Amino acid sequence: MIQANLNMVSRCRAFAADKRLDDLYGRYRKRLDAKQRELLKQAQLAWLRFRTDWCKFVSSGVEGGSAYPMVANQCYAKVTEARVSELEVVSTCKEGDLGCPAW
């Protein structure tokens, strides 16, 4: 596969992970009260800044090269998929779980 194809495939994976995160985030927010929605929003904004900065760091070794988009996209996808898992945990916890913000 040529690098352009690898870059495109990695971009598609990152886009799919972002879409999954956006969908889950949107559904989960609806279940929260106003204070919790604001707390989640602030946490998510901080996480988005972290993801951007982390992936810039991770891909800095190939910055300017043809593989840069692939490495950056792979990072975005991996970090976003991990965030999806984190939100899935808090969005599916059971009543009585004291570490759960909402049931």
Question: What would you say this structure looks like, in words?
Answer:
The structure is a single chain. With 103 residues, the chain is an all-alpha fold. It has a single domain (3-91), classed as Up-down Bundle (Substrate Binding Domain Of Dnak, Chain:A, Domain 2). 74% of the residues lie in helices and 0% in strands. The chain has 3 helices and no strands. Helix 2 (34-58) runs antiparallel to helix 3. The longest helix has 27 residues, at 3-29. It is elongated. The model has no long low-confidence stretch (mean pLDDT 94).
Summarize the structure.
The chain has 103 residues and is mainly α. It contains 3 helices and no strands. It has one domain: Substrate Binding Domain Of Dnak, Chain:A, Domain 2 (Up-down Bundle).
